Amino acid sequence: MANANIKDIAEIAGVAISTVSRVLNNHPDVKDETRKRVLEIIEEHNYIPNNSARNLKKTNSNDIGVLVKGIYNPFFAKIIQSIEEEIDAHGYTMILHYNDDNANDVEAAIELILEKKLIGLICLGGNFSNLNLEQFSELEIPIILASTDMEEQQKLDFFSSVTIENEKAAYDAVAYLCNLGHRRIGIITTGEEDQCIGNLRMKGYKRALKQYGIPYDDRLFEIGEYTFESGFHAMNKLLDKGQDFSAVFITSDIMAIGASKAILSRGMRIPEDISVVGFDGIDFARFFHPSITTVNQPGEYMGKKSAEILFDMIKKKKGHQHIILRTELLEGESCKKL
Question: Which of 22, 49, 124, 206 has its CA at a distance of 20 to 30 angstroms from the CA of residue 195?
Answer without folding.
Answer: 22
